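Researcher: I'd like a candidate sequence for this fold, 482 residues long. If you have to choose between options at a position, lean toward the conservative one.
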């Protein structure tokens, strides 16, 4: 009887252990199925000047974007996703920090609200905290591939205080400023009109001064030598000459491609540029497939100057602009395929957006439309009309975000900051205001309302409008400050 009791005791203990292991396995499996993966990967796609109406999932029927549309089909599509600014530099600053750009000082009080020169002093302040920096502290490998546009140096040509590698990215391959017409021969210049106006104004002022001085001498109101006037004219001519020389050589001074801190092309070469960015992204995923990573693929598409490889040029129904959109979609598909290949899709939150709406007024020097389509929304880039700030917002995370989820609540691209930080297990900074809100409750259906009661719409440093989302959800309104 004693031997039998011992056997029964051992058998009973074994059954309990097996049952315990089974329960733990089921809990682990259920956790993965719900997307609660420890330290998920993040792949962030950001287009430049892409209109919300340029994508098939948002209603376009003539441009082919099957890979981007796939994100909407397999995940969530946000219909009221708002950029924090209608201009590149402040929008990207807000996106990376989760804060309105006016809080970090990336908000111009002048006409130009973006960085145009690589040698300019200024950029995203070193004391600002990006989500890349916090993820880096959590053991993530981080990479920015593509456009930065938030400054390089502070006081010297090599202090790199605003460089991506000093803002939380382990690896940088891309362009530190932006892709503009002056970077590509034969595509015109964004400065010519302004320079002509400046020269004309200066010549008019000089002419008025000459007439005034001659009149004064004629009536005897001006005596003695007027050598100082000659020096003034000489100095003005020299400054104008230097300005023209600088802009004439803009491409060589500003259109640079960097790998980390090193310039590898000056000016960069447009041929197969999309493929090179894509391959860099794929290599980064391959290098980090066994550890958590953040990949920020920041496309120079579809900002002018437009470019497309031979495989895509002339293939769309919308000229070179359409070719650009479709080639970018190809790149997105390559990255998604890479995630599948390394069995990373279920471990990776993918997000696609644009930094602002399409630049609808863009016309090439040959008269071809180089701007995008903002759907039913009025206005475009650099305006706080809806077309300038309403952008695509697509999320895919198999097992965590249900397919074909549609969210018609006001959200912001600043919301990515707290969303990513919380999923990575990091803590939000306590010494500053964070304007974004965690999106996971909305994405997973655990909340039906956005946490944004108000969204403020700035153009440069000027508050243009306030969007109100009242608590009872019975009304929605946008109030202009003008």
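Model: Candidate sequence:
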């Amino acid at each position: 009887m004693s031997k039998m009791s011992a056997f029964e005791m051992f058998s009973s203990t074994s059954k309990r252990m097996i049952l315990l292991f089974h329960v733990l396995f089921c809990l682990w499996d259920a956790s993965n199925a719900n997307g609660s993966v420890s330290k998920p990967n993040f792949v962030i796609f950001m287009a430049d000047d892409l209109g919300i109406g340029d994508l098939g999932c948002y209603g376009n029927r003539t441009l082919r974007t099957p890979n981007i549309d796939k994100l909407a089909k397999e995940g969530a599509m946000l219909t009221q996703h708002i950029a924090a600014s209608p201009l590149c530099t402040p929008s990207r600053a807000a996106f990376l920090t989760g804060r309105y750009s006016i809080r970090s000082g990336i908000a111009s009080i002048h006409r130009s609200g973006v960085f145009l020169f690589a040698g300019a002093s200024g950029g995203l302040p070193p004391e600002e905290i990006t989500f890349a920096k916090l993820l880096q502290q959590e053991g993530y490998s981080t990479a920015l591939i593509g456009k930065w546009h938030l400054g390089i140096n502070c006081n010297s040509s090599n202090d790199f205080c605003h460089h991506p590698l000093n803002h939380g990215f382990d690896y940088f391959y891309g362009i530190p400023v932006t892709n503009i017409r002056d970077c590509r021969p034969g595509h015109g210049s964004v400065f010519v009109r302004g320079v002509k106006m400046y020269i004309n104004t200066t010549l008019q002022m000089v002419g008025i001064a000459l007439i005034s001085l001659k009149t004064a001498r004629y009536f005897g109101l001006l005596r003695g030598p007027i050598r100082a006037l000659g020096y003034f004219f000489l100095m003005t001519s020299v400054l104008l000459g230097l300005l023209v020389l600088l802009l004439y050589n803009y491409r060589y001074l500003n259109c640079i491609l960097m790998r980390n801190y090193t310039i590898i092309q000056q000016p960069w070469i447009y041929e197969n540029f999309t493929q090179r960015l894509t391959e860099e992204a794929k290599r980064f995923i391959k290098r980090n497939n066994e550890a958590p990573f953040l990949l920020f693929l920041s496309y120079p598409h579809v900002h002018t100057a437009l470019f497309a490889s031979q495989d895509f040029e002339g293939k769309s129904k919308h000229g070179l602009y359409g070719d650009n959109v479709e080639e970018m979609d190809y790149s997105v598909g390559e990255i998604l395929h890479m995630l599948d290949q390394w069995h990373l899709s279920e471990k990776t939150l993918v997000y696609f957006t644009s930094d602002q709406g399409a630049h609808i007024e863009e016309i090439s020097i040959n008269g071809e439309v180089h701007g995008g389509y903002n759907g039913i929304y009025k206005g475009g880039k650099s305006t706080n009309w809806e077309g300038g700030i309403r952008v695509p917002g697509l999320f895919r995370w198999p097992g965590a975000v249900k397919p074909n989820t549609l969210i018609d609540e006001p959200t912001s691209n600043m919301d990515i900051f707290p969303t990513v930080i919380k999923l990575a297990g990091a803590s939000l900074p306590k010494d500053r205001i964070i304007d974004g809100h965690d999106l996971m409750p909305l994405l997973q259906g655990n909340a039906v309302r956005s946490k944004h009661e108000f969204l403020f719409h700035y153009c440069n440093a000027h508050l243009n409008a306030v969007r109100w989302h009242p608590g009872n959800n019975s009304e929605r309104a946008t109030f202009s400050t003008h």
